[in-house]
Amino acid sequence: MQPYELSLAAAAREIRERRLSPVELVDSVLDRIEQVEPHVAAYVAVSADHARRTAREAEREAAQGSYRGPLHGIPVGIKDVIDVVGVSTTASSRTRAGHRAASDSTVAASLRAAGAILIGKTHTHEFAYGLTTPQTNNAWDRGRIAGGSSGGSAVAVASGAATFALGTDTGGSIRVPATLNGVVGLKPTYGLVPRHGVTSLSWSLDHVGPITRTVDDAALVLTAIAGHDPRDPASVAVPGVDYRPGPEPDLTGVRVGVPRTYYFEHVDADVAAAVRHAIAQLEALGARLIDIGIPMTRYIQAVQWGLMVPEATAYHQATLRAVPELYQADVRILLEAGELMGAGDHLRAQRARTLMRDAWARILEEVDVIAAPAVPMAAVPSGQETVTWPDGTVESVSDAYVRLSSPANITGVPALSVPVGRDTAGMPIGMQLLGRPFAERTLLRVGHAYERTQPARSLAPVT
Fold it and tell me: What is its EC number (predicted)?
């Protein structure tokens, strides 16, 4: 096995035991980037010289007995809406030409303190406002979409071009690409991970979180980046938590809610079968399955758009009026549409969100986690704009992908996506676990327990 193939946890063990040096790991990942990047285009820019220099420093620290923890010497790809001092934050947009970040975002500073090594900035759908990341190809089939908006981060992890990555999630932008590329994505509770220094899409819906090879890896990253920062007014002070799950895959006493409404409606048959099989595996591990109904489902799409669209337009208002031609057409149209939404629409969406949060809180008193499909279908071919369901319903691809992930953004609850199989075309399928606010340890425990019963996943064979 080559170093780039190692999970974060496995690489950390090798570095801690001095069987692998950060330099060897970084060189291996950089070599892998050279091999796969022409096929997948995951990166806006690769910081090879900086990564090698930082790896040598990490190696010296380790030799002197100064080990910073499990992220020490580990290569990370960071979505290019997250500031890293001295590095451009392009948001994959022409409007950001010549930009350089004057300081680290809070999460970049946390990763730096933990010893992680920036390998490069990963592509996003422009300003994180989309579900495809059109400039990046799926790691398993370059003729299919990567998913978005954190498509570059997911593809980098899935292809071995980063040991882990950071993404952002406003309506599913971590979980959708993670699922479509067969890796793990975690959207933490709103406020758990600070967003200072992160380009906003929709302030009241934005989250930062990890994309990793395994659930254990996601727990290691979350432990490093969670914390309070008063520069993000939504940031919540939570005592330091070690999110790593226990080694035993025992779920005795865990109550798993299985939705009878919404989450299995207009879902591909392969997806539904794979997720239901995974839920049965949770039951075999000791979990108790409880039938639940999802509340206020008819309002989900309207609330998501009623919050996101005007907030995004407000952020971009000055630039949109000054240089509209520099935006990609799909993003410009959405931003211009936001100009037509009145304050009343936004206020009604906020009221509905409050009711939805209360309704979800009542459900989550009855169950510990909810298990459901992460997305309704695997990655579609690039350029496909709609999907037609067996009952004749036609849905845009973007609406389909955001439909099952947006409730966690609206309510702010944590959500974890875990690979659970492949469809008939061999494309990855994911299960989504949703839980109570700040109950990430429970989600990670359940996801890890499931993962422990499955064969080890391989990297995407990019060709």
Answer: 6.3.5.6, 6.3.5.7
